[in-house]
Amino acid sequence: MQAGRPTPLGASADAAGTNFAVFSSVADSIELCLFDEAGNQIQTHRLPECSDDVWHGYLPGCRPGQRYGYRVHGPYDPQQGLRCNPAKLTIDPYARALSSEFAWNDAVYDYDHQSDHITLRISELDSAPFMPKGIVCADNPVASFERPQIPWPETIFYEANVRGYTMRHPAVVESDRGTFDGMRNRDVLAHLKALGITSLELMPVHTFIDEQHLADRGLRNFWGYNTISFFTPSSRYAKLDPISEFRDMVRAIHDAGIEVILDVVYNHTGEGNQLGPTICFRGLDNLAYYSTEPGDPGVYINDTGCGNTLNVDHPQTRKLVLDSLRYWHKHMGVDGFRFDLAPVLGRYDHGYSASHPMLEAIGGDDQLRDAKLVAEPWDPGPGGYQLGQFPGRWAEWNDRYRDTVRRFWRGDGETAGEFAKRLHGSADLFEAGGKRPHKSVNLITSHDGFTLADLVSYEQRHNEANGENNQDGHAHNYSCNYGAEGVTDNATILALRRRQRLNMIATMLLSQGSPLMLAGDEFGHTQNGNNNAYAQDNELAWLDWTGLERDRQFVEQVRILTTLRRETVFFRKDNYIHGQLDDGDSLTEIRWVRPNGQAMEDQDWASASTFGVFISESDGGDQNSTAAILINASNAAVMFQVPPTLADIGWRLAFASSAKARHDVCATLVPEFSMVLLSNSTGDQPEAADFSVS
């Protein structure tokens, strides 16, 4: 083996051989182990050089397709956070592909798993038979992708799980179900395109493992938030070649005019707490990759609630995250990222800071300058709730929006004022920091919690299938069953549930900000009240596409709403409007009114369940538009009057969540538990919709 070079990290093949480079600041030496396709170890080589804590060597004749891993020789003192154990094969953190699935066995622990878990006596069992092996890959150069490049004000996110979305789709052939190939199916993409979404947000596709407690119960991790490798697409979603199949999927989605946003988990790994398995980072350099308790380096900080926390204070860990993001953006075609438990990326020992080097590196990286960045702005750690506090480039999931909309439509008192703020783009949360409305990612539902159909059908979680005595998942869902828990044949209850689903989707799509829809909500997907289906890789969580046939008009109404959002000027406006706004190109005015057409006063908001908002925009020429959103969350129909100054223009009913809605010149009947959109425009506007379903 020759000296090779310390960069780039990982296995880099050329015409004559392969260069291997891996970081460890604690190793005495690192052994490269080669395996055949059956998993048998066939060669070992000590990496001959170490440059600035990077161990490296060049192996002539080593070709793409070769399986490999590392054994780390060095100090083993768990109480001091030192976990080198050459009996444990470790994955290359920069591997581009893995050959097999991880398997649970006592040998995957670096300590004697039958010991008292206090002394952590070193284990000499060989873990290689149970470990994925890295695969040397041919060079994967920066590729050319025809990216849709959707402007932020036009963005509509749609969250989906690759496996769950395609496993039961009738147009996807059996061999493609649950895979990247299934996601690029022509009918799948046609549905997304027709629905009007612009940005498909895929739940994690980095290689992940099942937690041991799930494996012991015969369950699998369905969501994917248990990553062990930040560069490899999961083989669970591939038929033969995960890399090429992922890239083919991205290109097909791009051809449909839709962006690909990837949910990424850089806050923890699947190695768990200090008693977890040694798979990759722990065995290479435990203290570099993981945060440990001050004064007690043998114990992990658990700001994620998942056992460990990635140590982004360490420069090598920051480099790992940044290199991974660049790879997925430039080499794999991903257009943006949603960061799970994102405050971890900005947390020092003393707390969160928007100026943390990790956040600054991501936001300021030239190779990521055109990537969308979205934070989940909370985690379970101290000071972990940071909504509105991320740097300027970052958009943020807005749980205040989620909870307020749920509470308002189910009839909670004193919520109208905050509901209006959320409809207005949450200026109270974002404007002071210089952010625009699109930085608020407005959601009603997501993978974590009830589906929209379950939100209006269950008041209690029903997570018995998870095997955790129904103690897991959110206890406070702000849901309502409208008179019956779960399945019912009561026509009145079913009609109200349907209308409330439509009310909430309409609210989201007619709010300022960036809407995010959960896959399946457009056709009533249910998980039978399970609000934590992370372990349900089965028909409970896989989308049931027969919902399309049961109520095709609901899907059409959602499509109408996305069209209205796209073609109505105000909903693409990316400035906060208070009263009047003159931005040089147009004059925009917003008015909040009572049903009688008079302005809302401060005291009105405390008890209001009905109100309207009128928005007018003029460019000083012949392009003028006015829209009105009329809200009635009460249990009785309300007649709304158009404000006198707006009475002489032609209004039309552009959308209504109830078929009983009526408009006549200056008055609009808004039925109970419903909302209406009125429109007037001298520019381009969509045709009025048919609202035949009550």
Structure overview:
By secondary structure, this protein is of the alpha/beta class. Helix content is about 20%, strand content about 20%. A hairpin with a 4-residue loop joins strand 23 and strand 24. Helix 9 (about 400-410) packs antiparallel against helix 13 (about 490-510). The chain is elongated and about 85 Å long. It starts with 9 loop residues before the first strand and ends in a 13-residue tail after the last strand.
SSE arrangement:
Blueprint lengths: L9 E4 L3 E7 L5 E7 L5 E6 L2 E3 L2 E7 L6 E7 L2 E2 L4 E2 L50 E2 L21 E4 L1 H5 L13 H4 L2 H10 L3 E4 L9 H5 L25 H14 L3 E6 L16 H9 L2 E2 L2 E5 L14 H17 L4 E4 L7 E2 L2 E2 L4 H8 L7 E4 L19 E4 H12 L5 H8 L3 H4 L9 E4 L8 H4 L35 H19 L4 E5 L28 H4 L1 H16 L12 E3 L4 E7 L16 E9 L5 E9 L5 E4 L10 E5 L5 E3 L2 E4 L3 E8 L13
Parallel strand pairs: 11-12, 11-22, 12-13, 13-16, 16-19, 19-20, 20-21, 21-22
Antiparallel strand pairs: 1-2, 2-6, 3-4, 3-7, 5-6, 7-10, 8-9, 14-15, 17-18, 23-24, 24-25, 25-26, 26-31, 27-30, 28-31, 29-30
Helix pairs in contact: 9-10, 9-13, 13-15
